[in-house]
Amino acid sequence: MARLFTLLYDKTMGWSRHRHATRWLVLVSFTESSFFVVPPDVMLAPMALASPNRAWYYAMLTTVASVFGGLLGYGIGALAFSLIEPLLQQWDYWDSYLKARLWFEEWGGWAVLLAGFSPIPYKVFTIAAGVAAMPLALFIMASLAGRGARFFLVAALMRWGGARMEAGLRKYVDLMGWIAVLVAFAGYLLLSR
Question: How distant, in Å, are the alpha carbons of 2, 11, 64, 156, 186 from that of 57?
């Protein structure tokens, strides 16, 4: 049990070198922008770390697939919002959706750019952009800039770290993992009072 995070780390790095990893990266990047909950960073980072010479390629694929997925989210918002509105409420995305609408009213296209780069659920903004009938060209440009900035930053950090970072992470991954579990547990205890 003490080496749990090392085992997970080794498995993740193995998957990142799999011959179909690129296809999965594209699929996750596309679906996360409109309905899937796993961010593509969890695949992009280990893939770029495992193959630093392909980091820019992976970042470009992730960005393009994410923007195409964002167009699906935009279409959902523009054409089928009444169908997914109950899901947004059921899955606790409703407050994020309302915040996205306010951001659109206040900042317009900048809201999509910021959402594309930030950890705020991008899918909520893609759907809200469709509901708000944001100009499509502006939506695409803001999405490319925001998502591209985020994914190329992740790729740059992994490329910069390369094999040295991979070995260092593996050496300390169990310590970092158990510290994260303890911090999460302590946070839970503090917030549940």
Answer: 36, 22, 11, 11, 39
